[in-house]
Specification:
Blueprint: E1 2-6, H1 10-21, E2 25-29, E3 46-47, H2 58-77, E4 81-82, E5 86-90, H3 96-109, E6 115-118, H4 119-125, E7 133-137, E8 141-143, H5 145-158, E9 162-164, E10 169-175, E11 178-183, E12 189-193, E13 195-198, H6 204-208, E14 223-232, E15 241-244, E16 254-257, E17 263-266, E18 270-272, H7 284-291, E19 303-313, E20 325-327, H8 329-332, E21 337-341, H9 347-362
Parallel strand pairs: 1-2, 1-13, 2-9, 5-15, 13-21
Antiparallel strand pairs: 3-8, 4-8, 5-7, 6-7, 10-11, 11-12, 14-17, 14-18, 14-19, 16-17, 20-21
Keywords: FAD, Flavoprotein, Oxidoreductase
Pfam families: DAO
Protein name: Oxidoreductase, FAD-binding family protein
Length: 364
């Protein structure tokens, strides 16, 4: 099989890796000048546990399975990561039922080692923390996402796959049992492949509309959620990730760490019409107020604008969070074509598991 994977983010590279290792001749087409410059470059770099998502959902299944695959991959490929653990905190008794519901959901999803801590136990782990209770996930961690993508690309190339940067895909149609794909760039042209994967992230819906024969109803709406992050100068006050009880549209302004131990906070949720990566420095005060609910010792004027990301959601404000979508021939009727929509958090954690599912559908 000859296959074209569109999108060189973490999910696209993971899919290309599986296809190449299964014997396919793979090309990864990326419109940008480097791998992982979109959604993958602007995440929290968290290895999620899988306790937030409805049992039986694609997000739950692929997050839990993907975390195990991801940790094994990091170990075997020397990708920097650390299972530092995470505390999801209730800052009032009114939030305790939320933690209990997340615990029950996590158990149903097969997340190991989750347990509820009372205030004294949580503060013993993180003395700077303020809470009435906390849900502890020791299996949650952080990863160097760029090193991960480089390692995935290395496996793709070792198996004979090819990366084509600055290669936007303009159109594709199915003729005589193959996909005829027109691409742009400095060496614009056309190629033929047996299998086509749309893993274009923020551009997935736009690409889908350029697939000849794909019904408009097969392209879901895309809702963009911007999330900004603020850095925090000074010595880290925590050794674990700290998450508040979830809020509409996301998991709240949480504390994450990078592999050097530096703290950063975010993301908030802003519903936007188009990608915008500017961080509004005036939002520091709102961030600080949210952070002080679980870290009252946050010093004044410590937060500095860091970066922002855009999540390609399938649901908007006030709506239940939509699941991942993996649409193959059974869903849209086009042979040799798989497309992914709504791959936001926990997409990085889920990437290696999603890749197996996509390869199964493409090569069946």
């Amino acid at each position: 099989m000859e296959a074209l994977v569109v999108g060189a983010g973490v999910v696209g590279l993971a899919i290309a890796r599986v296809l190449a290792r299964r014997g396919a001749a793979v090309i990864v087409a990326e419109a940008a000048e480097a791998i992982g410059t979109g959604v993958s470059a602007r995440s929290s770099e968290v290895i999620h546990g899988g306790m937030y998502y409805p049992p039986g959902s694609l997000r739950a299944r692929h997050c839990v399975e993907g975390r195990h695959r991801l940790v094994d991959f990091c170990e075997s490929h020397g990708v920097p990561y650390r299972l530092c653990g995470k505390l999801i905190v209730a800052t009032s008794e009114a939030e305790r039922p939320t933690l209990e519901a997340i615990l029950a959901r996590g158990i149903d999803n097969g997340v190991e080692s989750l347990h509820l801590l009372e205030r004294k136990e949580a503060v013993a782990l993180e003395p700077a923390l303020s809470c009435v209770a906390a849900l502890y996930s020791p299996a949650t961690g952080i990863v160097d996402s760029h090193a991960l993508m480089l390692a995935l690309l290395g496996d793709v190339e070792d198996a004979g796959g090819v990366l084509a940067l600055r290669t936007p895909i303009e159109a594709a149609e199915r003729r005589a049992g193959r996909w005829h794909v027109r691409f742009g760039g400095a060496a614009a042209g056309e190629l033929q492949v047996d299998g086509l994967v749309n893993a274009a992230g923020l551009g997935a819906q736009s690409l889908a509309r350029r697939i000849e024969g794909l019904a408009p109803a097969a392209v879901p709406r895309q809702v963009l959620a911007k999330g900004s992050y603020f850095g925090c100068a000074g010595r880290p006050a925590f050794t674990r990730l700290i998450y508040p009880a979830p809020v509409e549209g996301g998991l709240g302004i949480h504390l994450t760490l990078d592999l050097a131990g530096r703290m950063r906070f975010g993301p908030n949720v802003e519903w936007v019409e188009a990608p915008d990566y500017a961080v509004d420095a005036t939002r520091a005060e709102c961030f600080a107020a949210a952070i002080r609910r679980y870290w009252p010792g946050l010093p004044d004027d410590r937060l500095t604008p860091d970066y922002a990301g855009i999540r390609p959601k399938l649901s908007g404000p006030g709506e239940p969070a939509a699941d991942f979508r993996i649409d193959g021939p059974a869903e849209h009727g086009l042979p040799g074509f798989v497309q992914l929509f709504g791959i936001e958090s926990p997409g990085l954690t889920s990437s290696l598991s999603l890749a197996e599912a996509v390869a199964d559908r493409l090569m069946m």
